[in-house]
Fold:
Amino acid sequence: MIELKNAKKDFGHGENCTHALQGIDLHINEGEFIAIVGTSGSGKSTLLHILGGMDKLTSGEYRFNDELISNYSFNKLQEFRKQYISFVFQNFALMNKYTVYENIEMPLLARRIKKRKEIIMDCLDKLGITDLKDKCPTQLSGGQQQRAAIARALAADTPIVLADEPTGSLDNKNSNDIMNCFEEILRKGRTVIIITHDMNIASRCQRIIHIEDGIIVDS
Structure:
């Protein structure tokens, strides 16, 4: 499904150049549940951004279902993200002026999906937040906001869900609940890739990819 070959990503030039990824080779199969771990500055977030089409490689190849994504223009990458990628962030990335229902509806509107109410209510029910549908994010706890963000990813129905430290600001109970939510997404046949510094969280994934200094040291 996903394949990186000698993937490199640099920031800056000359003496100020930072080699964030230094020749990554990686294969991810459809339906895998993967954790990417590493110390701060190891390149794990850069890797996630590349996988999500949020940034482009300096050199090397990124293929998705044998399509060479690394040659895409930024406009084409935007379409790739819309069709194939959902994101869940540590800071939730919910729009505060919209209700939970409206936040979940956004990716469906972008893709002109019909029967949106049925899809949204089903996702709200699966995440146990139906009673919060008319509330704004500022009225929710951290755990509730993360559930709303995951419901949005679930509703978008993309084949890949990428999560950057999705439990980083949550307590143990909420973290466990959020991982249960990701397992619900897996049951839908999606591929879930999360960045985490918590090895207890990583251990619940099927595979752990350890990256340091822009190089995969264990997978």
In short: The CA atoms of residues 78 and 177 lie 31 Å apart.
